[in-house]
Structures are given as structure tokens and as C-alpha cells.
């Protein structure tokens, strides 16, 4: 992802600086999605004889999903249309990553599942009519482009990850190897740790316990501390408030900086 790419780039720059170099070439480190977008753009501007679909931007994808939902049988009954469109875009991406897009609508489910299956069919139809593609299907399109003679392919491709790689990306990497790209995998250094599971009564209590743990680690001199918060984007203000109160108790007093 983008955060990992930035961190790896920072570590590379630090290593070059520590080696005493006054200047160096920027490391070619990209999030995976940016890498396949670059392959698509290279093919688009290479002047080959292949006809490529137009790649939708994130906002264009969102608007297309909104249009599909708004004109459907469920359109008048939804209050949070924008959020529903965002959820559909995310589900569409996951369905393609895990190769279950062909099974949408084939299994019994609730009203939400039935609605999404209908929206997905209409979304796919509109994309096909207008020769459009999106982020969810770009990986498959890039895999097919690897056979293009005019495409600028990397000689070596290093995949750095600590997570499970979805089947869609695995197949893409397999195609890279088939087309002569020297494929290598790396990951973070494995560290031995001690795992403790603690059950708490609410999510607020979990946050407070995590903040207290993090403060104790700071006081012990730890330089790097990680706290994983599910649904962080939706809870960011709450997390900042709880951690701020624990890390800096005096900060909530009147007149405090």
C-alpha cells in the first residue's frame, strides 16, 4: 500500500545517506495499484495496435455507482446514497481480488446481497457499453498487456508484503514471471513476540486500554509503537480524543497548550 511504499522509500534514502552519498537516484518503489496503473499508461501511450478501455478515476467510479443505485428499484428508499456507492465500490474491488465476482447473485442472501448483485450487473453492463474499466479490473487488464511487445516491462520486480496476497494479484505475478520478469518476494524481518489476548466490555474500553499500554511503552523507552484500530477512518476523532487524554492528561485542563 501507499504507506508501506513511503516507509520503504524513506529507509532506502536513509541507507544512501548513511553510506555518505551526496545524491542518488530515487528508488522505484510503488504501491501495487500504482504499478499496474503505470503499466496501463505505458501501454496507452506506446502507440500499439491494442484498443484499451478508458480507466475510470476513483471519483468517476463513485459517480457511476451512484447513478446505478439511484436509478434502481432501491434508489428511492436509500438515505445514504453516497455511502452505499462507496460500499459497493469496495465490495466490487474485493470480489475481483478474491475471484468471486462470477458468483455474485448465485447464492441465497439477504436483501442487501440481492441489491448489490443487481447493481453490479448494471454497473458491468454500463462499463461494457462505454468501453470503461476500473481499479478492480485493472490488474487483470495489466496482466493481459504484459504480452504486448511495445510495453516497457521491468527486468526485476520485487514484491514486498506482510499480508496475504489475493488470488488476483498472485495470477498477475505469475503472468509477470511467464513474460520474463525476474520476480522476487521480500518481507519484513520476522520478530519473536509475546501474544496476549485481553477481553474488554466495549470498544471505548479497548481504546483506553490500548492507550494506557502505549503510554507504558513510551515510558519504557520504546521508539516505535503500533496500535491497530479497526475502522480507523470512522473512529479517528474518538481515537485522537482517548489517546490525547491518556498521553497528555493535563492537556484537557483550561488554559493548557
Output the keywords.
257 residues, mainly alpha, two-stranded parallel sheet, 9 helices, 53% helix, 5% strand
How is this structure best summarized?
This protein has nine helices and four strands. With 257 residues, it is mainly alpha-helical. Strand 3 (156-160), helix 7 and strand 4 form a beta-alpha-beta unit.
What can you see in these coordinates?
By secondary structure, the protein is mostly helical. It has nine helices and four strands. It has helices spanning 2-18, 32-45, 58-70, 81-97, 111-129, 135-145, 167-178, 203-219, 232-247; strands at residues 54-55, 132-133, 156-160, 182-186. The strands form two sheets. Strands 1-2 form a two-stranded parallel ribbon. Strand 3 (156-160), helix 7 and strand 4 (182-186) form a beta-alpha-beta unit. The radius of gyration is 23 Å and the shape is globular. The model has no long low-confidence stretch (mean pLDDT 92).
- Counted by DSSP, the helix tally is 9
Spell the H/E element sequence.
HHEHHHEHEHEHH
Can you count the beta strands? 4
Largest beta sheet, briefly?
2 strands, parallel
Structural class: mainly alpha
Beta-strand content? 5-15%
List the helices and strands and how they pair.
Blueprint: H1 2-18, H2 32-45, E1 54-55, H3 58-70, H4 81-97, H5 111-129, E2 132-133, H6 135-145, E3 156-160, H7 167-178, E4 182-186, H8 203-219, H9 232-247
Helix pairs in contact: 2-6, 3-4, 6-7, 8-9
Amino acid at each position: 500500500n501507499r504507506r508501506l511504499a513511503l516507509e520503504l522509500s524513506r529507509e532506502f534514502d536513509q541507507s544512501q545517506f548513511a553510506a555518505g552519498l551526496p545524491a542518488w537516484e530515487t528508488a522505484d518503489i510503488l504501491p501495487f495499484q500504482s504499478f499496474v496503473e503505470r503499466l496501463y499508461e505505458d501501454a496507452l501511450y506506446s502507440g500499439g495496435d491494442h484498443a484499451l478501455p478508458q480507466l475510470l478515476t476513483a471519483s468517476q467510479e463513485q459517480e457511476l455507482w451512484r447513478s446505478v443505485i439511484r436509478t434502481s428499484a432501491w434508489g428511492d428508499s436509500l438515505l445514504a446514497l453516497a455511502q452505499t456507492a462507496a460500499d459497493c465500490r469496495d465490495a466490487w474491488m474485493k470480489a475481483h481480488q478474491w475471484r468471486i465476482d462470477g458468483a455474485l447473485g448465485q447464492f441465497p442472501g439477504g436483501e442487501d446481497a440481492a441489491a448489490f448483485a443487481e447493481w453490479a450487473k448494471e454497473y458491468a453492463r454500463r462499463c461494457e457499453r462505454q468501453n470503461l474499466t476500473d481499479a478492480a479490473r485493472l490488474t487483470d487488464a495489466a496482466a493481459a498487456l504484459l504480452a504486448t511487445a511495445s510495453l516497457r516491462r521491468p527486468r526485476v520486480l520485487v514484491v514486498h508484503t506482510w499480508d496475504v496476497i489475493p488470488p488476483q494479484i498472485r495470477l498477475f505475478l505469475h503472468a509477470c514471471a511467464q513474460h520474463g520478469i525476474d520476480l522476487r518476494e521480500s518481507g519484513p524481518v520476522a520478530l519473536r513476540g509475546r501474544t496476549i489476548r485481553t477481553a474488554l466490555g466495549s470498544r471505548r474500553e479497548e481504546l483506553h486500554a490500548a492507550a494506557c499500554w502505549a503510554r507504558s511503552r513510551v515510558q519504557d523507552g520504546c521508539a516505535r509503537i503500533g496500535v491497530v484500530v479497526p475502522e480507523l477512518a470512522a473512529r479517528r476523532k474518538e481515537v485522537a480524543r482517548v489517546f490525547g487524554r491518556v498521553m497528555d492528561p493535563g492537556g484537557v485542563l483550561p488554559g493548557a497548550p
